[in-house]
Amino acid sequence: MADGVRLDAELVRRGLARSRGVAQTAIAEGRVRVAGRSATKPSVKVDADIPIEVDGDDGYVSRAAHKLIAALDGFAVDPRGRRALDVGASTGGFTQVLLERGAAAVTALDVGHGQLVDELRGDARVTVVEGENARDLTAERLAELTGGAPAPDLIVGDLSFISLALVLPALTAVAHPEADLLLLVKPQFEVGRGRVRGGEGIVRERGDRHAAVRAVLGAARDLGLGARGVLSSPIVGSTGNQEYLVHWTAGAPDDPTEWDAAIDRLP
User: Fold this and answer.
1) CA-CA distance, 224 to 171, in Å (whole number)?
2) CB 185: neighbour CB atoms within 10 A?
3) For FRET with 3, which of 18, 45, 88, 156 sits at 20 to 30 Å CA-CA?
């Protein structure tokens, strides 16, 4: 099998994935089986005639789509006619949902390259921005990247390997004054290393997860953002971490104690 083809490339060749990025996501989520065994590495070499199965293809380019669906429905936010910014766009799960729900335009931004699937990359409503760190965004830079497009009035994001508190200043700076922000809080990137369980990378203690949410809400409040809702994500992260969805609006800070009870009820 060493002389075969990379598994992620073979999934694309067989039409089992729309891109290598989508294939890699499916493998990371444990949805790919090779000869009946769960595959864990996209780089493993496979023969052209070996049986490969992929579970859970629901038409979305990534399961992350269901996180945004839960946020839009749970917070009653309607993307129709809005100009959206999707930070950490990756293969495009969030972007796909925004377009399905009538967004006028979406800027799909990611620090990586070549991850957004071709069908979204080729959509006239999508502006693809690659190799750009959301933390470094300014209003001027975003306007330059989007050809002078108006400020986004809807910002969504599923970011990893960085604290959301470090990205919020940039997102606040580029947002329309009446923007809605729907962002994932991932405790594993908010708490100190001592609170993350060994090699698993999982925040096991509920109190630590809640503290992470409170810390991010506090950072947002300091920037003039007001929380309008907090929900648990309907699906856990790729490593098994519980994640949370938060809805903020610009220009209307919330009461620091307003969300304590809601956070206490989170898993």
Assistant:
1) 12
2) 24
3) 18
The answer to whether the CB of 121 falls within 8 A of the CB of 107 is no
Query: How far is Cα 212 from Cα 191, in angstroms, rounded to an integer?
Result: 6
CB-based contacts of 128: which residues, under 8 Å, 6+ apart? 108, 116, 121
Bridge partners (DSSP) of residue 53 are 33
Question: Which domains, ranges and CATH numbers included, belong to the chain?
Answer: 5-54 (3.10.290.10), 65-264 (3.40.50.150)
Length of the chain: 267
In the structure encoding, which two tokens stand for residue 89, read together? 């766009």
21-67 pLDDT per residue, tens: 778 878 887 889 998 889 988 899 998 888 888 886 667 888 889 99
Reference 21, options 99, 105, 110; nearest CA is 110
Buried b / exposed e over 208-217, threshold 16 CB at 10 Å, is bbbbbbbbbb
